[in-house]
Automatic annotation (TrEMBL):
Name used for this protein in its record: DNA-binding PadR family transcriptional regulator
Coiled coil (UniProt feature): 121-148
UniProt-recorded Gene Ontology molecular function terms: DNA binding
Domain Transcription regulator PadR C-terminal intervals: 98-179
Amino acid sequence: MKENTGKSKYVILGMLARMPLTGYTIKKWLENEYSHFWQESYGQIYPTLKVLVAQGLAVCSDKGEHGNGRGQIVYSITDEGRKELSKWLREKPEIEKLRYEILLKISFGENTESEVLIGHLDDFIRRNEELVKEMKDCMENLSQLTGEGIDFTYSHLTALCGVHVYSAMKDWAVEAKKIIIEKGESL
């Protein structure tokens, strides 16, 4: 299996810097908190955890003080792992790359019926409305967890970004739909 050379290492180190976690918990946390801007599969998480342990950036213990009695392995960040995370956090982020298939389809819209595009836009509007709701729910959940002694201010900020991005994409789709309908009426 090819070693993951992407950012998985830093995603996991960042999560372990908050608290010791199992691979399963890391995956669930990623699905709930980061899915609007970052995805990792079990096929990335577990090999990355093994690499982190091999590099001395994390340690693992099964059924340890944080274990749940089911034999799950709990991972914790080491001092070296914190240094590696800190070093990466200081590096300039890569330029973001946007990939929305709907934008390609709208771009080539003269090659299909306006009803097809309107249907795609209606679906896109609904998805983005749902995503805004999910981000707002995530922010509410994070505010409740903050009371348990973990500072989720920065996670809250990423969810807030999701609210703004998905709201903007929904607004764009509403406006695009209006323009397509007006174009069809003028023909």
